[in-house]
Design a protein that fits this description.
By secondary structure, the chain is mostly helical. It has a single domain, classed as 23S rRNA-intervening sequence (de novo design (two linked rop proteins)). It is built from four helices and no strands. Helix 2 packs antiparallel against helix 3 and helix 3 runs antiparallel to helix 4. The longest helix has 33 residues.
Length: 108
């Protein structure tokens, strides 16, 4: 929800809206991909979809950096979102590593 509030609060300038739509898209797709992962039919599909979550989190992190570096949003106002994004990246990396370990040891 914070990512939606961030987008809603952005200035109505072209750069802010373009970057804002990117961060909104990537930030909200993480939840959709996460739900999809837990409905997967195999461990491989689960791991692959979790990888998509990680990819979208990394993209979200990039767009948040760009909002800050371009002075569209003050760095301090993005700290909570950046922290949450970093924590989620760490969680998804751990999940993917664990699943890859299980898959590797299960099939080889």
């Amino acid at each position: 929800m914070q990512i939606i509030q961030l987008y809603s609060a952005l200035p109505n300038t072209t750069p802010a809206q373009i970057i804002g739509k990117q961060v909104l898209r990537s930030g909200t797709s993480v939840g959709a991909n996460y739900r999809e992962a837990y409905r997967s039919r195999s461990k491989q599909e689960f791991t692959s979809t979790m990888g998509l979550c990680l990819k979208e989190l990394e993209e979200t992190s990039y767009w948040l950096d760009l909002l800050s570096e371009s002075a569209i949003v003050q760095k301090e106002k993005l700290e909570q979102l950046r922290d949450e994004c970093d924590q989620l990246i760490a969680i998804f990396v751990t999940i993917i590593k664990k699943e890859n370990f299980i898959l590797h040891n299960l099939y080889f």
